[in-house]
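Ticket #4471: structure output looks truncated?

Reporter: J.K.
Steps to reproduce: submitted the chain below (221 residues) through the standard prediction queue, then opened the result file.
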Amino acid sequence: MGLLDRFRSQPAWKHPDPGVRLAAVDALPIDDQDLLAAVAAEDADARVRRAAVGKLMQPAALAGVAAGDADERVRDAARGMLRDLACGAFEGTSDADSLAALDALQDARELAAVAKDAPSEAIARAALDRLTDPRGVTGVARQAQQVAIRLAALERVTDPAELLVVALKSEHKDAGLAALERITDRAALEAIGARARVKSVARKARAMVRALDGAAAAAAE
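Returned output as attached by the reporter:
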């Protein structure tokens, strides 16, 4: 067999030209996961590896790339895919795959994103359980899609300043009111009454200020 014949018989994803390999990866069907995993792990060109990562749905393979690839952009792409898998962003992703993807995530921002966005309460709670960053927990209390996760995160918020953030900035009535119930400082209540994003939270804060003033006046008399 001549040299030209050998090139013709060679799969495009093994072509010596990285541009040809990149086009071949783009054309690979999404269900060819084992081949995509091999390209993501072994191709010499970072652009080709990143393209393969963008179609890869295997948590174990993505975890290997995220931990060991020499190129930062490829590692970032792998972590992004792991986060999306954990959040159930792709149709047909099982809870087992989502949990496997979550297990590979370490960064507090990624764990917080999963706790906020995962449609599965079990996955969101697993992410919250691993989250130790106080501000990350506050963010989950403010922004998580699921009521149970917002309130579970709020139970872990102990800093009065962070409680104030939830009461002021949460767009969810349940979290805002639950945070407000734990605030007694008059200045903080005034701030919530004036600036809370949820109107019912602001109204209740103003009522609490009036109650405090009434109690103070009664005590003075």
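Triage note (M.O.): checked the attachment and the full token line is present. Residues 1-7 have pLDDT under 50 and may be disordered.
Status: closed, working as intended.
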